[in-house]
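Journal club prep, notes for RB
We'll compare a predicted complex against what the paper describes. Inputs for the magnesium ion case:
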Amino acid sequence: MPLVSPFETSFGRSTDRECLLIILQAEGVTGYGECVADRDPGYSYETTGTAWHILKDFVAPAIMGQDVKDAADFQQRVAHIRGHHLAKAGVEMALWDLLGKRDGQSLRDMLGGVRDRVEVGVSVGLQANPERLVRTVGNYLSQGYRRIKIKIKPGRDVEDATAVRKEFPAIKLQVDANSAYSLDTAESLQPLDALDLLLIEQPLHEDDIWEHHYLQSKFRTPICLDESIITPRHARAALAMGACKIINIKAGRVAGLSQAVAIHDLCRAEGVPVWCGGMLETGVGRASNLALASLPGFILPADISASDRYYTRDITRERFVLNPDSTITVPAEPGLGVTLDMDALKMFALAQLTLKA
Ligand code: OSB
Ligand code: MG
């Protein structure tokens, strides 16, 4: 699916997005799920290709024709598959949608959501230069977004963030390095501490949880982990080590909504704020993110922007719009609360596979 504008991070630049749409059918009900793996293994080792393989050869055989009761049951049935969280999470999402439609319950209510609108921001990719970045940020602010995240990488960090802060002294601002630094090179980030940022997201490598602890001790600004937190156990360890003060939760990264809720619960019990990250989802994944972000511990604004920030044409008939108070309304219909635009799906689909029990 072509993106409205290219999205560049420390691991690469995309002009379009590839994902897997999972359609689950049982008892005459249909559920949709989005596997947020992309074509390239930049953010995660998983790709649409590896997810296709894992889903076809391992996840599907573990559940097809079986009486899968709920998400916990699903997790047990796929527990023998090591890793491949993005693949698993796509199916768990479809299962929630299916169960919600069967029971006439919205995903928000099933997960224990408490809000009908979620505070959101926009994640701004690396731009050609700081001037362009300031202009792009200004454009999103004028659309009504009240929280801005900018992507950084070595050589494009302090100067970029300072330029944005200087132009917009009062906005909620945060940065995301997508693990582009080492403990040594991260020393150059020290001036960020004077910019009153909400957080610094994933500066070091994903398996550097302990190194983040050293870095956090040098920063007043909270460090937030994204890539590093792939299970509730990682979350517990990171908090115990003082590796971060905030956690970004993405259901995909942690193998499903049930695991996302578990991390939320754990952080909430510890008084640690969480927020909902994004993976440039289609309307399917966006609906799921909105439901998740409606849980009480999601204190900071989410990386969930309006549909038109990503796609001119989406695969859902519903389009999400920004409310004037920088929120997006959480779907209230059963399950995810979205329907597919079959013409759009046909137009974008690269491949299709049907598996039957
Ligand atoms: O690190 O948060 C990230 C997109 C793809 C992969 C990783 C990340 C992101 C974003 C985009 O920041 C957030 C969004 O969906 O708007
Ligand atoms: Mg991130």
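Talking point for the session: The pocket of magnesium ion (ligand 2) is lined by residues 176, 178, 201-202, 226, 248, 277 (CB under 6 Å).
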